[in-house]
Amino acid sequence: MPPLAGKELRIVGFLCNWCSYGGADTAGVGRFSQPTDLRIIRVPCSGRIDPLFILRTFMNGADGVLVSGCHPRDCHYSEGNLYARRRLEILQRLMPFIGIEPERFSYTWVSASEGQRWQKVVGTFTDEIHAIGPAKPFGVSMEQLEKQMAGVLASPENAGAEKQEVERAAS
Amino acid sequence: MPHLDELKSAIKERLPELDFVIGWGRGFDPIHATPLFMRTEADVDKLEWGPLNVHNTATYLPSLRGKKVGVVVKGCDSRSVVQLMQENLIDREDLVIFGMPCTGVVDLTKIKNAVGDLGMVRDVQISGDTITVTAGGKEHALALADVLNNKCTVCQYHNAVLSDVFVGEPIEPSVPEDQVYADILEFEEQTPAERMAFWESQMNRCIRCYACRNACPMCVCRDHCVAQSRDPNWLSQRHDVGEKMMFQLIHAMHLAGRCTECGECERACPVDIPLVRLKKKINKEIKELFDYQAGIDPEATPPLLAFKVEEQNIREREW
Ligand code: SF4
Ligand code: SF4
Ligand code: SF4
What we know:
The complex is a heterodimer. Chain A is an alpha/beta fold. Chain A contains six helices and four strands, in the order βαβαβαβααα. A four-stranded parallel β-sheet of chain A has the order 2-1-3-4, with helices on both faces. The two termini of chain A are about 25 Å apart. By secondary structure, chain B is an alpha/beta fold. Chain B has three domains: about 1-105 and about 150-170, no CATH class; about 110-145, Nuclear Transport Factor 2, Chain: A, CATH 3.10.450; about 180-319, no CATH class. Chain B contains twelve helices and eight strands. In chain B, the strands form two sheets. In chain B, strands 2-1-3-4-8 form a five-stranded mixed β-sheet. In chain B, strands 5-6-7 form a three-stranded antiparallel β-sheet. In chain B, helix 10 (about 240-255) packs parallel to helix 12 (about 275-290). Classes of the chains: A alpha/beta, B alpha/beta. The interface of A and B includes residues 79, 107, 136 and 138 of A. The structure holds iron/sulfur cluster (SF4) (3 copies). One iron/sulfur cluster (SF4) binds near residues 217, 259, 263, 265 and 276 of chain B.
């Protein structure tokens, strides 16, 4: 069994302050159940998202990244998301080229009133990441990784380490 | 080179109105050409043209802004000139562009692989389709086609896309346009794990010398490059594969829609990392998405500095 089976994965969401962050909030207020793997980073506009944020996030060990902004034509700054769409599309097509599975990155549009849509987006995306499992960090071979993980889980301080891991993940 | 003399007299004619003209001359040995800065007619006589003219002469232009310069270009170099103009990094009126049809330049790594040590070259003769390199006491006759730079084997722009003086007969593209990205499609047949393993093994050799960046005609940030900035701190000093790859991704993304595939990054790399492959991939997507190629039209806007409200070719995901 893979060492992280059943655990949370690290998924990072870049959400626009004006729409999708509100949408996620709406989903929360409406008490729609959501997976808890997503760590949200609030940005002023999807146009603020440098594609390098996403690449850096993957290089730092994320298993998935989701970007969500205002629907086209609805941008608070009128055209930020239209520039973002071009950049994000290029990035999405580049990522598989360096070996990051295409499922791990997605971008979409969710407005502040679309709590239900947010629930669906985050649920679908998280399920897809779980289906392919944790990402292999760049520059670490699969064998090295399994050895490391096995080492952590088998050590006497295992319980403590695991607790720490859970706390770290929850923070 | 039948037209070289014609080119030289054209340069001499314009020289009085210019600070200097950039071209190529013989380097420290017969195989390494070197950029040549021609100020006098005697300098112009040293101009060479041929498969050893590997450098992109456009690389110097942004730092020479304010001077009146002439520049001798191959087709690919001329695309860099156009791209620099498009981004308002050089001034058209201060520039005189000299072009000749280019039949291709060599990849010195390929020659090195064929002859062994490039430090021992005594003589180079080029005649027809053959380049004969005398190195280590031996003569190696190599077919030019075998040691040509990859970019030349699929070149679509042998003739300068923009020039004030053009000498010689224009040449047709090397291959049909739809074959330019065949190597990218082939690489993409591998699984993601194989592709990552490929880049890991390549990046493993990187020594973070940044020669790739310094040689790139479109890398114009100079001291403000994010690779060295501490605020924001995009890259640590760690020497691991992830940081090295991250730098290449920064370079590739900063060149998205601007890279003219001149190959200088790859040529400058001391450890032969196939850097153009990453950039070609992005160019292929830009061509598909926006029907756009960098360095063709001085009036065009790079696609990532523009948008359409309805994008014809972007199919977003349905949730
Ligand atoms: S890419 Fe074309 S123009 Fe450039 S060196 Fe090769 S053949 Fe010449
Ligand atoms: S990234 Fe490489 S191929 Fe592209 S313009 Fe720069 S040096 Fe030329
Ligand atoms: S030139 Fe090659 S070795 Fe130097 S930083 Fe670039 S990729 Fe690394």
